[in-house]
Amino acid sequence: MPTHAALALSLPIEMRVAGLGVSSVARLVRPDGCVVARAGMNVFDTEGEALIHADDARSRLLARVVQGGSFNFRSSYTLRAPDGAPLGEVASEPGPAFWRTAMTARMADAHAAPFRIRATSAVAEGISDFLGKLPLLGAAVDAVAKVRYEVVRGDAACVAVIDRMPSAIGECYSMRRTSRLTPEEQSFCALFMLVALALDGARSRGG
Question: pTM higher than 0.70 for the full model?
């Protein structure tokens, strides 16, 4: 069975989402600037599947993200290795604010604790999500709103934080761990960020 460690997605890492509207590309970037994962997305994709490649040339497939459940706000996603083996599942939760729901994820290992991404400030997140989409205001709003997400493990420990960074066009997030994580957990958390904030977020805003 494939392991997340084999994906080599370690923290800290940045996610940069380029493009506005219904079609975007999200990239996971190491501190040295090397792209280690790329996901193309389209909110009108009727196949309900996104492909995650190891580079911009799309020469090596890392994982498939298959969407299930209802469209937009209460979606579920299955992460699969190129050979179809399960890597884990991600699902959105009903939340107090319609612009973003909390997300939970569970690795394929039945004994692994689930993870959850939650915004530390729903108000800041709402301001950034709505006003931040205006091209001329995006960077300024992100700088003021200070949007931060926490990745919480099943034992209630915060294991990583995700900060939304100022960006004039598109979105940029920086993820770093705050607690000890295994290589498999780090890779899974990086994929979790990609699915929760890029893929699910694009579908929610575009629906």
Answer: yes
